[in-house]
Amino acid sequence: MTRDGEPWSAASGRLPGSPRSIFHGDDPPDPPRRSKRSRAGGPRSRAADGAEQSDSALEGDHKDGADGSKDPEAQARQVCLRLLTLAPRTRAQLAEALRKRGIPDDAADQVLSRFEDVGLIDDGAFARAWVESRHHSRGLAGRALSAELKQRGVAAEEIRAAIDEQISPDAEVSAARRLVDRKLGSTKSLPSEQRTRRLAGMLARKGYPAGLAFRVIREALEAEGDLGFPEDDPPFDEEELDTE
Questions:
Q1: In angstroms, rounded to a whole number, what is the distance separating the alpha carbons of residues 74 and 58?
Q2: Where are the domains of the chain?
Q3: What's the pTM?
């Protein structure tokens, strides 16, 4: 789908006019400018006509009802387009936004289905972009990423597909090692058991399972020459995931 000749890519997480990622709080791009008639007043190009027809199909006419109220589907289209201009959203996120604005469910479903048909809503692409961004920028493991996407209404099968596609078991181990190496130096003054607890808690909050966490921590401490790793893995809370 294009708007005024500019491609929109849910998989890359970028909007027209903005080369930056959608997941880091960037300012929204300037709205695309519509094509103008030539100075001579001649007919516009087919591309300009096609772009305007595409806008019309999505935005619809701003029709008012007999009582002067605005058509709920037109309202729903306006809300969705405005939110999608700021950042891609899942269908569930847009549906919630429409409910909060009092849009009837049947009108919301019609508009959301139309947006899915033309590719403006794509939960699978959203999940893939989310996993890629959050894994590389914050080191989150599949478990934490799954929790985040579930909160945003992505279906379980799409979550699993995105995680399996983006993060292999070896990649998850490598990410855990990088996180431990980054934190290890700041714990040198602590006893071995306290170091282990602190590092394990950090990995737990990012979604790494206990077995993997303690294996990576043990390797890091032994490589450093700290042989005081506890014989029994100390308990730590796995429930508080890093979802910020």
A1: 9
A2: 2-117, 123-166, 169-224
A3: 0.66
